[in-house]
Amino acid sequence: MEVATKWLGATLDYCEHFGLQRMPFADNVNPEFFYRTQTHEAAFVKMMMCAKHHKALGLVWGRSGTGKTLLAQMLLSAFGEGEFIPVVILATPGMSKMGLLACIADELEIPRPSGRENTQGYLDMIHSYLMDTYSRGQRVVVIVDEAHFLPSEQLHMIRALTNLETPQEKLCTIIMLAEETFPRRLRHKRYNSLRSRIAMSSYLMPMARAETEQYIKFRLMVAGSTENIFAEDVYDPIHSYSGGICREVNKLGDNLLLEAYMRSEPRITRTVLERCLQEHCLT
Ligand SMILES: Nc1ncnc2c1ncn2[C@@H]1O[C@H](COP(=O)(O)OP(=O)(O)OP(=O)(O)O)[C@@H](O)[C@H]1O
Ligand SMILES: [Mg+2]
């Protein structure tokens, strides 16, 4: 009954109840919440090095929800303006070769090739843009999120882009972010030449038990928490249920706060956790 009244009151924001300034487990990719686990830090440093050392191609892969898109955003904000011109493009299942190039051109604000809106037209425009930026001492970094969606021909287009070079070096760095099965696909001999250009690769592992706890505490702190809202004995089960996957931890964390708020509980205890898992069919 009490629960129903609260729902009707429509104050579904639990932040006030827990003394938080904002939602700690919101389903978005906000670099402010970036927690440097070992695996995320390693991937981030490798991506930076890939660009700084003028490598042609890099690959970061991992299960859904492990933080690939957040890493792309981290890289964007780390590069800012100056030596690097970073752009992120989102590959989609139906993306054509020209669609891929048009997307890169749009992000770089390269005008459409007049009278030659075809693959070669775009390649030429991108090439001349890269030459210009190179001569100004800048380097383009293209981050291709969801690269596993690209069919074979489009992946070969990525390879073609890595072929654009001066006698001294490659003109741009491309970093592919992809799901866990992608490297297995690249083992096929049709991808030999693409694979051989991958100068850096990094696998995003799920978080370890201790990292899951630190991750939760960190996100709560960034959201403005000054107390231990989660009881010590809930971290083990949260880690087991989430498998250390960031998105799963967020989903569960958010539901736990909502559950406790609706029941006017001040903390996330084992009882709140068990009720929440039942309620949301998570068991
Ligand atoms: N290191 C981290 N620190 C803080 N939050 C993280 C971290 N890694 C991931 N997250 C959060 O987890 C959620 C999922 O991350 P993200 O969307 O980047 O995963 P993904 O690997 O791109 O997933 P998908 O393959 O489904 O696109 C996001 O809310 C993100 O903010
Ligand atoms: Mg993603």
Structure report:
37% of the residues are buried. Strand 3 (139-145), helix 7 (152-162) and strand 4 (172-178) form a beta-alpha-beta unit. Helices cover 48% and strands 12% of the residues. A five-stranded parallel β-sheet has the order 2-3-4-1-5, sandwiched between helices. The chain has two domains: 17-28 and 207-278, Orthogonal Bundle (Helicase, Ruva Protein, domain 3); 54-204, 3-Layer(aba) Sandwich (Rossmann fold). Helix 5 runs parallel beside helix 6, helix 11 (235-242) crosses helix 12 (246-262) and helix 12 packs across helix 13 (270-279). The radius of gyration is 22 Å and the shape is elongated. The protein contains 13 helices and five strands. With 283 residues, it is of the alpha/beta class. Residues 27-29, 33-35, 37, 40, 62, 64-70, 179, 246-247, 250 line the site of adenosine-5'-triphosphate.
Number of domains: 2
* Succession of helices and strands: HHHEHEHHEHEHHEHHHH
Distance between the termini: 25 Å
CATH architecture of the largest domain: 3-Layer(aba) Sandwich
Query: What's the story with the biggest beta sheet?
Result: 5 strands, parallel
Bound molecules: adenosine-5'-triphosphate, magnesium ion
Radius of gyration: 22 Å
The CATH superfamily name of the largest domain is: P-loop containing nucleotide triphosphate hydrolases
Give the overall shape.
Answer: elongated
Structural class based on helices, strands and sheet pairing: alpha/beta
